[in-house]
C-alpha cells in the first residue's frame, strides 16, 4: 500500500522500492536499529528504469494529492468535484516531479530517489544533502584553482615553443575575444667549448692567446646569427651588423697578436680567422 512506502529510487539499471513491513523486523543501516524496512528491486536498461521511476513517483504524488484533498473535504462530495480539485492541485506538482524539483523530495544527480513527506529520514537526509553540497563546493574550488595553475603552465610552455619555432601553437589557451600574443622567434646563440678544441701548447702565453681566439670565434658566430635574424627593424638590424663587424675585427686583432708572438718565438704565422670565416671581409 502507498502508506507503507518509504522510498522510490533508481541507480543506472536498478529500480528499487522501499516499504515498511511490520511483519519483518531487520537491522537497518539507515537507522542503526531494528526496522521493518523491505527493499524490492528490479533491473532493466537505464532508459526504461528511469521511465518506470518517473511514473512511480507521479503515481505516488497523485496518492498524496488525493489524500490531502480528502482531508480538506468536510463532507461527501461528488466524483466530478473531486476530480476537478485533483486536476487543479495535481497539475503543477506533477510538472515539478517531471522536472525533478518536487517538494519534499530529494533527487540526486547520478540517480533518482524519492523520500516520502513525513518520512523519519527526511531531517537526516537534509543534513546529509547540505554536507554533500558543501563538500562538493570545496572540491569545485580546489579543482578551479588547479585548473588555473595548469592553464598558466600551458601558456608558458606554448610561449617557449613559439620562441623556438616562431609560430604560436594552437593549444595556447585563449579567453573570450582574446588575441594570441605576438612572439618573436628566439635565435640560439649559446655555445659550448670542447676541451679538445683548446690547443695544448707548452708556452702558457701562447696558450692563453689561443684560448682567447677560440672563445672570441664562438662570439663571432653568435653575432652573425643575431645579425642574420629575419623580421628585424632597421635600427636593430644595423646595430647588430655593426656588432658583428666589430667582433670580426676583434678576432683578427687577436690573431695578429698570436702571429706576432709566434714570429717572435721563431714559429710560422697562421690564418685561422680566414679559415674560420670563409667568404667574409676581414678588416
Automatic annotation (TrEMBL):
<dbReference type="InterPro" id="IPR021774">
    <property type="entry name" value="CUPID"/>
</dbReference>
<keyword id="KW-0175">Coiled coil</keyword>
<dbReference type="InterPro" id="IPR000299">
    <property type="entry name" value="FERM_domain"/>
</dbReference>
<dbReference type="Pfam" id="PF09380">
    <property type="entry name" value="FERM_C"/>
</dbReference>
<protein>
    <submittedName>
        <fullName>FRM4B protein</fullName>
    </submittedName>
</protein>
<dbReference type="GO" id="GO:0005737">
    <property type="term" value="C:cytoplasm"/>
</dbReference>
<feature type="coiled-coil region">
    <location>
        <begin position="126"/>
        <end position="153"/>
    </location>
</feature>
<dbReference type="GO" id="GO:0090162">
    <property type="term" value="P:establishment of epithelial cell polarity"/>
</dbReference>
<dbReference type="InterPro" id="IPR018980">
    <property type="entry name" value="FERM_PH-like_C"/>
</dbReference>
<feature type="domain" description="FERM">
    <location>
        <begin position="1"/>
        <end position="67"/>
    </location>
</feature>
<keyword id="KW-0963">Cytoplasm</keyword>
<dbReference type="InterPro" id="IPR047176">
    <property type="entry name" value="FRMD4A/B"/>
</dbReference>
<feature type="coiled-coil region">
    <location>
        <begin position="237"/>
        <end position="264"/>
    </location>
</feature>
<dbReference type="GO" id="GO:0005923">
    <property type="term" value="C:bicellular tight junction"/>
</dbReference>
<dbReference type="GO" id="GO:0005912">
    <property type="term" value="C:adherens junction"/>
</dbReference>
<dbReference type="InterPro" id="IPR011993">
    <property type="entry name" value="PH-like_dom_sf"/>
</dbReference>
<dbReference type="Pfam" id="PF11819">
    <property type="entry name" value="CUPID"/>
</dbReference>
Amino acid at each position: 500500500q502507498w502508506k507503507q512506502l518509504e522510498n522510490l529510487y533508481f541507480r543506472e539499471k536498478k529500480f528499487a522500492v522501499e516499504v515498511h513491513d511490520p511483519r519483518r523486523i531487520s537491522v537497518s543501516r539507515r537507522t542503526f536499529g531494528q526496522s521493518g524496512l523491505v527493499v524490492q528491486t528490479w533491473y532493466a536498461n537505464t532508459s526504461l528504469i528511469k521511465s518506470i521511476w518517473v511514473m512511480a513517483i507521479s503515481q505516488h504524488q497523485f496518492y498524496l494529492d488525493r489524500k490531502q484533498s480528502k482531508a480538506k473535504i468536510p463532507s461527501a462530495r461528488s466524483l466530478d468535484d473531486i476530480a476537478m480539485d485533483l486536476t487543479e492541485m495535481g497539475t503543477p506538482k506533477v510538472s515539478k516531479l517531471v522536472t525533478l524539483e518536487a517538494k519534499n523530495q530529494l533527487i540526486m544527480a547520478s540517480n533518482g530517489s524519492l523520500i516520502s513527506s513525513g518520512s523519519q529520514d527526511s531531517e537526516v537526509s537534509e543534513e546529509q544533502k547540505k554536507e554533500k553540497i558543501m563538500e562538493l563546493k570545496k572540491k569545485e574550488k580546489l579543482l578551479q584553482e588547479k585548473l588555473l595553475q595548469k592553464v598558466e603552465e600551458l601558456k608558458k610552455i606554448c610561449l617557449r615553443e613559439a620562441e623556438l619555432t616562431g609560430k604560436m601553437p594552437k593549444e595556447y589557451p585563449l579567453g573570450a575575444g582574446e588575441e594570441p600574443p605576438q612572439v618573436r622567434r628566439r635565435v640560439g646563440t649559446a655555445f659550448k667549448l670542447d676541451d679538445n678544441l683548446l690547443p695544448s701548447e707548452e708556452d702558457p702565453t701562447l696558450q692563453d692567446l689561443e684560448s682567447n681566439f677560440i672563445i672570441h670565434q664562438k662570439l663571432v658566430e653568435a653575432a652573425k646569427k643575431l645579425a642574420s635574424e629575419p623580421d628585424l627593424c632597421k635600427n636593430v638590424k644595423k646595430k647588430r651588423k655593426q656588432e658583428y663587424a666589430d667582433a670580426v675585427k676583434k678576432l683578427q686583432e687577436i690573431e695578429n697578436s698570436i702571429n706576432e708572438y709566434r714570429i717572435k718565438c721563431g714559429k710560422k704565422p697562421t690564418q685561422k680567422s680566414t679559415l674560420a670565416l670563409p667568404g667574409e671581409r676581414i678588416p
